[in-house]
Design brief:
Layout: H1 2-9, H2 22-36, E1 40-41, E2 44-45, H3 49-68, H4 76-99, H5 101-104, E3 112-113, E4 131-132, H6 142-152, H7 154-165, H8 171-194, H9 199-222, H10 238-261, H11 274-294, H12 304-310, H13 323-328, H14 340-350, H15 368-385, H16 393-416, H17 422-431, H18 444-454, H19 458-480, H20 486-495, H21 501-509
Parallel strand pairs: 3-4
Antiparallel strand pairs: 1-2
Helix pairs in contact: 1-4, 2-4, 3-4, 4-21, 6-9, 7-9, 8-9, 10-16, 12-14, 15-16, 15-19, 16-17, 16-18, 16-19, 17-18, 19-21
């Protein structure tokens, strides 16, 4: 939520200067996206101080051009598009004024991704030129191998630039950024093994790995001299603290009541074999899709079930289990509700929004209170719709999930306010998550708090976004009266695209109160 409010807060309402068309906005959007990307020097994005200062100086002129496009007479969906562009511009402004990831954050220069993200664009701020290794099927043919080798060849040059660009004094960003760089080196080492039969690709991967390891070592050597806090120093976040604290308390109280009600029932024992895991997870997807159909939750095009099956979680023999695996091991159906992400991405690919502005991922993760907020809301929504009725113990899992989201969001707020270090934020999140399932010795809590440190408001987006979704459902139900059905709501909701929830509430329910500068007609 706050990431979107950041983006909206710094621009005045559109100028009332001339009659404009949505087509003008679409053309301008294409130009804006080209400007937003850093210039390339020899195929390498230029994040050097002079290039970033030039972009910062030029940005106000682009904002002024947007204000010259007057959307006030347009249909609401087209006005929403104008505000999307506005929000993206202010995301770049926020990067220059506050985050400056190219200067403060060593993990910004991690650009090799072995695993698929469940978001429209990868979470957090990263340099241009990311390489999604998961998209390649090995062994590669000669064309694909040459293309990948060429992309990898840019990494040593980018990392050499990083040594000059990284001048920040943000202690935790340096310490945990070095760990992210080490993980990239490991991913590149694995790539060398996969490409063993293609010497040119192996050489490119090795060169990238060596450059990554060298930068990681340099960051590690520099980290002890970095004494500054890493949070952005949020001064006015009392409302979010109140809301998240309330949701955490509600989740823990609801869990206690569910546990009391279920005391006479057998405990849910975790799945403990790969064969049982595969069987039960496959069956859970079948059961979940049947539930969505029988409960008339939403229209179900034929591409949704394959999207879920393609991303079914894999069995791990590692013990103790990671937090989300604790849930998956007890009821494989529960987290399929959060897997709405895969429905979102499948729709974006198969039925993209007709507006070019919403056709692909929005910048700066401003989609996250829609994507993460709804995925979180959907866990409780499906429980209330009846998904867990035959498995009462699974209601406990839903409340545990919400409590963990609340605990980590509060930790993020304290981290950004520089009240806690990253390690202290991790301990806060673990100590406030029920049953001890979020463990300091596992990777989940560290990954999450490092991400939230880099991308302010990402951790809170799950809880604040969920609350915004609740408001949207309530507003739409009041608007439609007896005509409201969950399926009608969901179909309209999905069709509007992956945009911030305040804009969805304006477009779907006519409520523009959370959109500064909106033309209320």
């Amino acid at each position: 939520m706050r990431a979107f409010l950041f983006a909206l807060a710094f621009v005045a309402a559109p100028a009332q200067s001339k009659t404009s068309s949505h087509a003008e906005l679409v053309a301008f959007f294409s130009e804006w996206r080209a400007f937003q990307r850093p210039r390339l020097e020899g195929g390498v994005p230029d994040y050097r101080p002079a290039a970033m200062e030039a972009q910062r100086r030029e940005l106000p002129a682009w904002q002024a051009r947007l204000r010259e496009i007057d959307p006030s007479g347009w249909p609401v969906p087209q006005q929403v598009d104008w505000h999307i562009v506005r929000a993206e511009m202010n995301g770049l402004d926020f990067d220059h004024r506050v985050l400056r990831p190219w200067e403060r954050n060593p993990a910004f220069y991690v650009t090799v991704y072995p695993d698929e993200s469940d978001q429209p664009a990868r979470e957090g701020p990263y340099a241009l030129g990311g390489i999604d290794i998961w998209k390649y099927s090995f062994p590669l043919d000669a064309t694909k191998a040459a293309e990948l080798a060429q992309r990898l060849a840019a990494i040593p040059q980018l990392l050499a630039q990083a040594r000059t660009n990284l001048t920040g004094d943000d202690h935790d960003l340096w310490v945990y950024g070095a760990r992210s760089l080490r993980e990239q080196a490991d991913a590149l080492s694995a790539l060398e093994g996969k490409a063993a039969a293609q010497p040119a690709l192996v050489a490119a991967a090795r060169s990238a790995r060596e450059a990554t390891a060298a930068l990681a070592q340099w960051v590690e050597e520099q980290a002890p001299s970095k004494k500054g806090p890493s949070g952005i120093g949020v001064a006015n976040y009392d409302e979010e603290v109140t809301l998240v604290t309330r949701e955490l308390a509600r989740a823990r109280a609801s869990l206690a009541i569910e546990e009391q009600k279920n005391r006479g029932l057998p405990k849910q024992e975790p799945i403990d074999s790969p064969e049982e895991w595969s069987r039960r997870h496959a069956a859970a997807i079948t059961e979940y899709m049947a539930f969505l159909r029988s409960a008339h939750v939403r229209t179900l095009p034929d591409y949704l079930e394959p999207a879920l099956r393609a991303h079914a979680p894999q069995y791990s023999a590692k013990r103790p289990l990671e937090f989300f695996a604790e849930v998956d091991a007890r009821d494989p159906e529960v987290l399929l509700t959060h897997g709405y992400h895969w429905f979102d991405l499948a729709r974006m690919e198969r039925e993209p929004h007709p507006s070019p502005i919403r056709h692909g991922p929005l910048l700066y993760n401003i989609f996250n209170n829609r994507t993460e907020g709804f995925a979180t809301a959907n866990e409780e929504l499906m429980m209330h719709t009846g998904m867990c009725d035959a498995r009462p113990r699974s209601r406990e899992l839903v409340w545990i999930l919400l409590a963990q989201r609340g605990a980590r969001a509060l930790a993020e707020l304290k981290l950004q306010a520089n009240e806690l270090t990253l390690e202290e934020a991790a301990r806060f999140a673990t100590s406030n998550t029920p049953r001890g399932w979020l463990r300091m010795g596992n990777g989940t809590v560290w990954f999450e708090q490092h991400l939230y440190l880099q991308q302010p408001a990402y951790g809170t987006s799950y809880v604040i976004g969920k609350l915004e979704i609740d408001k949207l459902i309530a507003a739409r139900a009041a608007q439609l009266g007896d005509g409201f059905t969950l399926q009608r709501f969901m179909d309209d909701f999905d069709a509007a695209g992956l945009i911030p929830v305040p804009l969805l509430r304006w477009e779907l329910a006519g409520d523009a109160s959370a959109v500064p500068g909106a033309q209320r007609r």
